[in-house]
Amino acid sequence: MEKVIGIDLGTTNSAVAFVDPFTGKGECISNKEGSNLTASAVCFQNREEVMIGNTARDCKIIYPDTTVTLVKRLMGTEKVAAIIDEKEYSPQQVSALILKSLKEDAENELEQKIKKVVITVPAYFDSNRRQATMEAAVQAGFEVLDLLDEPVAALYHADTIKNHAGKTVLIFDLGGGTLDLVCARVTEEAIDEIVISGDNYCGGSDWDNALIEYIKTTYLKNIDLDAAAEQELANKAEMAKKALSKKNEIKFTVMTGNGRKEIKITREEFENCTEKLLNRAMTVLEDMKETLIEKGIDHLDQIILCGGATRMPQIEQGIAEIYPDVEIFGKDRDQAVAKGAAIYAEAFVKEKQPTVKRESKVSTIKKLNRVTSRSYGIVAFIGDNERKVCNMILQNSQLPAIQEEVFYTHYDNQKQVSIEVFESAANNYYEEISEALEIGKCFLDIDGNIPQHSPIIVSMRLEENGMLYIHGYEESGNTEVTAHMQTQALLSEDDLIIEKQQVDDIYVKVV
Ligand code: AMP
User: Fold this and answer.
1) At residue 10, what are phi and psi to the nearest 5 degrees?
2) pLDDT at 313 > cutoff 90
3) Contact indicator for 128, 374 with CB cutoff of 8 Å
4) What's the pLDDT band for 362 if we cut at 50, 70, 90?
5) What sign results for the dihedral spanned by CA atoms 378, 195, 157, 201?
6) Nearest CA to 370 among 117, 147, 75?
7) 255 strand-pairing partners
8) Residue of the nearest CA to atom 3 in ligand 1?
9) Is the pLDDT of residue 511 over 70?
10) Ligand 1: residues within 6 Å at CB?
11) How far apart are CA 173 and CA 312, in angstroms?
């Protein structure tokens, strides 16, 4: 039987899991170093010799310039992750090396070639980042069954420990790089997402950076650190942060130009210097609470914690202040996402290929009913000079989501309108173009001479698989245009219609 796996491609650590056929539960696979967690680190000796994982992370102190960590933060950007022997490596290429290493670990353990995978991404990842993750997976030789939101994966895992049917749960996932929240209603048959929220720039590594800054300004004033000393300080700060989750005080030494300096940090000092980050995370939770109340959800049955950074006591305290009477569940915080991804992968194969016999006990796996974590709209003039994104499908709409709006031509005898499609994290009707991400564009030709402010009917349909369909229609000349674009996964050239033409504009939106 062909095995399928789940991968949690994390900012600091990654994990790979499969489903134990006898228990139906997710199990993590050990890497070559015997650990279930593989540091998301790549250390290049040169183009041919590359170390991946925990050894690579530890080598950062010796090779700070050629060791790449936190590459997930660069995914979906144009940034270069590394330059080795004058060759540039994109974030996708570096991530592909990590994925390839996890693939090999799975193949060793499961004693067969592995192709099919579910990879998790932050629920709050935008289309570019999702697409970059797909590209990395394809480069690593995978066939991606689906990209699954990390908190939802954690819920799939928790649901195999104890059935959550009838419960409304909130998953609070604070990993190395991102904060990700999902609230869902669980039934016997399905997981129904209700609200997704998060922050792509709030994770454990930000707490490390705040502590490093505090140590530098308090203990290392006027001391220049070389690259090795900087790296040692970064490692020690992360260790201190972890220790302070258990202890009230920690002492350690760091390298300075002319010797070593002793440093003592109390939990109180740590919490003071990271207070802004805690507030930032808790604001996301408070906003989500408000959105949930607007949707009529004022009671949660359980909050599931996942991601290593939720071990900081300040996180649980902060959550308990916002949701004082809700049970908090925090088992298996580092591995829940990979295990849940493996469970979902099995369910996915079972549902899509029902004739292929699966030996695992996954027949009861629940269907996932998604909401969109982003809003989708098109650009139009608001007044004569101001162009904005007019969101048609709003964040947290249930999928599939369908919306139709009427726009108007900008001037007399306009021959064409451009329909520029944008994605944004805003939940408002209007969004600044600079705050949104263009994901595609199509053009509607107009037949005949029509006056200014003639109606253009635009409809949008966002499917559960992330495919966004656009239709534009001009009635008097009976012309139309259709286009589709993928918001979650890899684009084929045929998928995205981008024509390099002069852009004419759509005028003012009817509210
Ligand atoms: P993950 O992406 O779930 O592997 O989370 C990694 C983040 O969790 C890193 O920033 C770690 O430093 C952090 N982390 C792991 N264990 C602890 C702990 N005991 N206390 C505080 N942070 C931790």
Assistant:
1) -90, 170
2) yes
3) no
4) low
5) positive
6) 147
7) 260
8) 307
9) no
10) 10-13, 175-176, 204-205, 238, 241-242, 245, 307-309, 311-312, 334
11) 12
